[in-house]
Amino acid sequence: MSDSVYTTIATWVMPILSALKPYRDGEDILREVGIDIHCIEDANQRIPVDKMTQLWNLAEEISGDDCIGLEVIKYVSPTSFFMPSPMPIWPVARFVKAWSAWLSFPMW
Is residue 2 included in any domain, yes or no? Predict the structure, then answer.
């Protein structure tokens, strides 16, 4: 799939595709980033982190939302992860930035 040494659990792709459903077909998205559609429902499969980074970048581009991770989280369930999964650093940084902005918003 890729030359990347670091991988993440394949099932993490499913919540991302669910969030992108209103924008584009999931099979087309996976084809564009080079992820095998047959592996994404199997927690024993791994996907190179560089492919996941490409998927996150494409998710932002397709949705036009630089905080798309906040939409993806709506589709995450306990079954999305069967083991700890390292994520690319940039989605975490964007989440922290969005969370900080939300916390600074006057609530009253």
Answer: no
Strand partners, 9: 46
Average pLDDT over residues 35-64: 92
**Residue where the block lists tokens 């047959």:** 38
User: How far is Cα 71 from Cα 73, in angstroms, rounded to an integer?
Assistant: 5
CB count, 10 Å around CB of 91?
Answer: 20
**Domain around 95:** 7-104
Is residue 30 in some structural domain? yes
Measured distance CA(27)–CA(46) in Å, rounded: 18
The verdict on pTM exceeding 0.85 is no
Residues in Cβ contact with 71 at an 8 Å cutoff, skipping those fewer than 6 apart: 19, 63, 65
